[in-house]
Amino acid sequence: MIIVCCTFVFVSAIVQETLFKDMQNSEHTRTKKDQQSLETKFQLYTDTTEEGCQILFNQLETLDKCSFNASLPLVMIVHGWSVDGILEDWIWKMAAALKSQDKQINVIIADWLTFAHQHYPIAVQNTRHIGQEIADFLEWLEESIQFSRSNVHLIGYSLGAHVSGFAGSYISGTNKIGRITGLDPAGPLFEGMSPTDRLSPDDANFVDAIHTFTKQHMGLSVGIKQPVAHFDFYPNGGTFQPGCHIMHVYNHIAQYGITGITQTVKCAHERSVHLFIDSLLHNDKQSTAYWCNDINTFDKGMCLSCRKNRCNTLGYNIREERLPKSRRLFLKTRARMPFKVYHYQFKIHFINEIQGKQIDPTFSISLTGTKEDAKNLPITLVEGINGNKTYSFLITLDTDIGELIMIKFKWEGTAVWENIWDTVQTIIPWTKGTRRPGLIVKTIRVKAGETQQKMTFCSQSIENIHLYPAQEKTFVRCEDRFRRQEK
């Protein structure tokens, strides 16, 4: 039923797309409003009430009544499409997290439920209108109390991300809004559109976006896949998120009750919100993401460089840097808060002594650090081992083990596996005395993404560098032969 519901939404969106585009064309010209009130409700968040204090457009006394502080920055939360017509719980959690991180800010919730609680294509059409209203509201603050738009940070979720983009593009004058954050910006009716018809890097001095649900169904995805910011983050590749599979519906029901079914449907989409909240609540566990061409390259550990601003912090504490071209960053996360993991690239040099015979072993690795240990981490190579070659792969850890000082590397296998291996050996001749041919593991080179430290490990037993099924070898730090600079 869940899948049918989601499919219906997408199909409905496609059917009405032509109608929407025709209506959209008439909206391109920006017209300044003369009205004394706006449809959007601007609620200043306070710690004392969950409903906030409403600031009314063109009514200065409400700024005083709500204790709006013009000397402090403004963060405005903009929600997305609404199915039930009520503000979702995450909005208040984010507002509280913002205040806990930095109490010296104004937090406003832009409530546009009247226009968001519509059929999806109609809500999409309304995003321009709401963007216009937010622009008008910010211009009023600037004109009436000299509040600079550069001190404004819009955080928009789903459709709210594009609302924020329109607000940034509609605001008059040459100066831009300070920052816009798009939390899994909506995909249907925005994917593939020109920068003027969606959130784009041109909409603010700095734009960042977190993409968490770009997995396609019938050619459409809930979240937009294309880059829309200066820095676009793709946690776990951006297509889907750990802990959000339908198999986890029972966990969600246990946590949320019957609404857990809804939580399962929106889990990956809303993960963008909770990743951002996580960055506010856990200052000591900020997630680092790395510039990479695609997730497959990232999964090989090939992109863990921070040189020349190749990495950045996901969420509220991002390093703001305007770039001439959107930069796509990747990272892995846990299934729950705190989401941070520690990224490591492992490069292992294998020599397969059985000429012309490819083998496809499974390995496990155990790490000893100065703080903690990590045991029996599985490794599966995406390709078999042939000849003399170095293989690269990514390992992530949930905990900080400190500086890595020892590695135990095991060729997983049983006694039966080993007997089969021996049988294979008898068929294939070799000329190295009585010793069985196997794998030679010369070095293990490691790069820690979070610290950028490079280390080289050599076999603890210099005389015996061969590895066989069901056997484990210990590697210790040795003279660093990993000094080649990254290009």
TrEMBL record:
Q: Name one GO biological process term.
A: lipid catabolic process
Provide the GO MF annotations for this entry: apolipoprotein binding; heparin binding; lipoprotein lipase activity; metal ion binding; phosphatidylcholine lysophospholipase activity; phospholipase A1 activity
| PANTHER family linked to this entry | HEPATIC TRIACYLGLYCEROL LIPASE, LIPASE
Function, as annotated, reads:
Catalyzes the hydrolysis of triglycerides and phospholipids present in circulating plasma lipoproteins, including chylomicrons, intermediate density lipoproteins (IDL), low density lipoproteins (LDL) of large size and high density lipoproteins (HDL), releasing free fatty acids (FFA) and smaller lipoprotein particles. Also exhibits lysophospholipase activity. Can hydrolyze both neutral lipid and phospholipid substrates but shows a greater binding affinity for neutral lipid substrates than phospholipid substrates.
The cellular component terms of Gene Ontology attached to this UniProt record, alphabetical and capped at eight, are: high-density lipoprotein particle
> Which positions fall inside the PLAT domain?
342-477
| Annotated compartments | Secreted
Keywords assigned:
Calcium, Glycoprotein, HDL, Heparin-binding, Hydrolase, Lipid degradation, Lipid metabolism, Metal-binding, Secreted, Signal
Residues annotated for Ca(2+) binding in this entry: 198, 203
Q: Report the SMART domains cross-referenced here.
A: LH2 (SM00308)
Q: State the InterPro entries in the record.
A: AB_hydrolase_fold, Lipase, Lipase_hep, Lipase_LIPH, Lipase_N, PLAT/LH2_dom, PLAT/LH2_dom_sf, TAG_lipase
- Under Enzyme Commission nomenclature, its number is 3.1.1.3, 3.1.1.32, 3.1.1.5
In terms of SUPFAM superfamilies, this protein maps to: alpha/beta-Hydrolases (SSF53474), Lipase/lipooxygenase domain (PLAT/LH2 domain) (SSF49723)
Broad class of the protein's primary localization: secreted
**Domain of life of the organism encoding this protein:** Eukaryota
Enumerate the active-site residues: 158 (nucleophile), 184 (charge relay system), 269 (charge relay system)
Q: What is its quaternary makeup?
A: Homodimer.
For this chain, the family text in UniProt reads: Belongs to the AB hydrolase superfamily. Lipase family.
Matches recorded under PROSITE patterns = PLAT
List the catalysed reactions: 1-(9Z-octadecenoyl)-sn-glycero-3-phospho-L-serine + H2O = sn-glycero-3-phospho-L-serine + (9Z)-octadecenoate + H(+); 1,2-di-(9Z-octadecenoyl)-sn-glycerol + H2O = 2-(9Z-octadecenoyl)-glycerol + (9Z)-octadecenoate + H(+); a 1-acyl-sn-glycero-3-phosphocholine + H2O = sn-glycerol 3-phosphocholine + a fatty acid + H(+); 1,3-di-(9Z-octadecenoyl)-glycerol + H2O = 3-(9Z-octadecenoyl)-sn-glycerol + (9Z)-octadecenoate + H(+)
Residues in the signal sequence: 1-20
Instruction: One Pfam family, please name it.
Output: Lipase
Record flagged with keyword Nucleotide-binding: no
| Protein name per its UniProtKB record | Hepatic triacylglycerol lipase
